[in-house]
Amino acid sequence: MGNPNVGKSVVFSRLTGANVIASNYPGTTVDFSKGKMRINGEKVEIIDAPGTYSLDPTNKAEEVAAKMFEDADVIINVVDATNLERNLYLTLQLLEKDKPVIIALNLWDETKHLGIHIDEKKLEKILGVPVVPTVAITGEGIKTLVSRVKEARSPEYIKPTSDEARWIEIGSIVKKVEQFEHRHHTIVDRIADATIKPFTGIPIAAVIILFSFWVVRLIGENLITYIFDPIFYSWYKPAIMKFSTLLGSGVLHDILIGQLINGDIDFMQSMGLLTTGLYVPIGAVLPYIIAFYFTLSILEDSGYLPRLATLVDNVFHKLGMHGHGIVPVFLGLGCNVPGALATRTLETRKQRFISATLLAIAIPCMAQTAMVFGALGTYGMRYILMVFFTLGVLYIIMGLILNRFVKGESPEIFLEIPPYHRPSMKAVAKKTWMRVRWFLREAIPFLFLGVFVVNVLYAAGVLQWLGNVFSPVTETVFGLPGGASIALIMGFLRKDLAVGILLPLGMNPLQLVIAVTMLTIYFPCVATFAVLIKELGLRDMIKSTMIMIATAITVGGILKIILLGV
Amino acid sequence: MEKKILPLTQLPVNVRAKIIAIEGGHGFQRKLHVMGIREGQTIKIVSRQPFRGPVTITISGYQMTLGRGMAQKILVEVI
């Protein structure tokens, strides 16, 4: 346990060898992770708790931490050595309880750069529990930490006390063990300040964001051109064509290979398990997922996000959240599921409800972005920008509306700004890989299921029937052919598959804009849906879903009037 | 010399000040206290966002962003 952003997750990874996501901003760990390790031949379970400043929780993640504390046998308290005074508050609270504690004095290397000297032996004597300096990121001190876990104890003399008394105690401890060297304002400090002052910070933010998207595109395109497309087109396609001939026509061919377009396999439109079902997630979405999470990991580890949160706080406050609401947005651009989990760092129900609903409505995940590009790419950037512009405007408008009508408090921002760090490439690569693996595990089953269900329903004639039933509605209200309603149904399973249904309908680009915009808005995918039910509760999720559907219908209708002029 | 007490929101950027009092409810005071923002601490404003946006402060060696309404309740004295 420990304060937010002190490196608990890194210590945890070092101890257990388990992989957990760590970043340079408070609130990366919103749930607990479990791992096993051996200490002196004994098998123990280690739990990585979310960060908290005290045992009296102020948000959901801190509640998790406080609950974890109750269940633990031994507490490893990770302390940020560069911030000893503030961290000791939680430490004292922990020591007051009847649980054995050992302290990892983490970020030990940073103290030297900052001119802070801590006498850890003296600290150990004063607190009466083992204190081990660690540099979790390099692994320094972790062995000592493990070997001394058995010495963890609950000191007798520290008794529960008041807030005031704790701070007096901390003051006297810090005076005894810590010394500061005077330090001049360095160039790094000056750059750090420039990124958070509005006059310089906002232009810098714009440049950083645009540059990041450019990097994502660059990496994604190169991965496709040089790795994924060669694999799929020069190697996989001939093989699968042979397989297609071998199968002949029939139900099995329809499900595995799908429909041949002009006698050839079209990876986007054939809709077979082994063609579209495999190509869309791996050949089209995965390269951008890799590119996106790689870039995001660098941004996260550098410590830039809390500064961005400060700069955008004003806007987000008007939408009923505060600056930290930008974090779910960024994570959600990759996949909405981690985005939905990140809403936990917001303090109130109102904030979480707005953040989650807006995320599901207006933040396209990579699969949705791939759908937008897949459907409109051939017609040019103009149409793609129309979709994203609509979504951006929608985020703001819906936020303003929800802020007015959702009951509850929306407290102001209260966020620690960590110092900048140079991201370690090893850590970034590891984190990217973990998220990519997670995407594969979550997304691929649903894709296969989606393709499978569509094929079965198609063979049974259900989809055609639905298309006919809904066609009066889709035609009059949204100006779309009846077949588009099939894509809307399909979109519930996987949005990226819906392109395969939309393309053969022969719509004009403006109709496609309406269709993909509605597809993005009306419903999150099943995986996100499941997480949102857990996060918001069933009642709020039903409300949220109704808002999504109402928004999709309204926006579809409005777009039809604006774009098609009827 | 008479010293002026002012809310944190009116403290100029990069001027060191001492926290004299924190107004507001018990819960709010607690929230600040556990972060080490309390009476007697030295505080400095790093940046201030426009249109009543949040302020970023430096206190006991680290930085923190807090909303304008919260900053209004922190009374300081220039040192």
What does it look like?
The complex is a heterodimer of chains A (566) and B (79). Chain A is mainly alpha-helical and 566 residues long. Chain A has 2 domains: 8-180, 3-Layer(aba) Sandwich (Rossmann fold), CATH 3.40.50; 198-246 and 257-408 and 429-564, no CATH class. In chain A, 64% of the residues lie in helices and 7% in strands. Chain A is built from 24 helices and 8 strands. Chain A has helices at 8-16, 60-71, 84-96, 108-114, 120-127, 142-148, 163-177, 187-194, 198-247, 251-256, 276-302, 305-318, 326-334, 336-342, 349-362, 366-376, 381-405, 425-460, 462-478, 484-493, 495-502, 509-522, 526-536, 538-564; strands at residues 33-39, 42-48, 75-80, 101-106, 116-118, 131-133, 178-180, 414-417. In chain A, the strands form 3 sheets. A 3-stranded parallel beta sheet of chain A has the order 3-4-6, with helices on both faces. In chain A, strands 1-2 form a two-stranded antiparallel ribbon. In chain A, helix 3 (84-96) links the parallel strand 3 and strand 4 (101-106). In chain A, helix 3 packs across helix 7 (163-177). Chain A is elongated, with a radius of gyration of 27 Å. Chain B has 79 residues and is of the alpha+beta class. Chain B has a single domain (5-78), classed as Ferrous iron transport protein A (FeoA) (SH3 type barrels). Helices cover 18% and strands 39% of the residues of chain B. Chain B has 2 helices and 6 strands, in the order E-E-H-E-E-E-H-E. Chain B has helices at residues 26-34, 68-72; strands at 5-7, 17-22, 42-48, 55-59, 62-66, 74-78. In chain B, strand 3 and strand 4 form a beta hairpin. Chain B is globular. The termini of chain B are close together. The relative contact order of chain B is 0.34. The mean pLDDT of chain B is 90. The chains are: A mainly alpha (566), B alpha+beta (79). The interface between A and B is medium-sized, with 37 and 28 residues. Strand 8 of chain A pairs antiparallel with strand 5 of chain B.
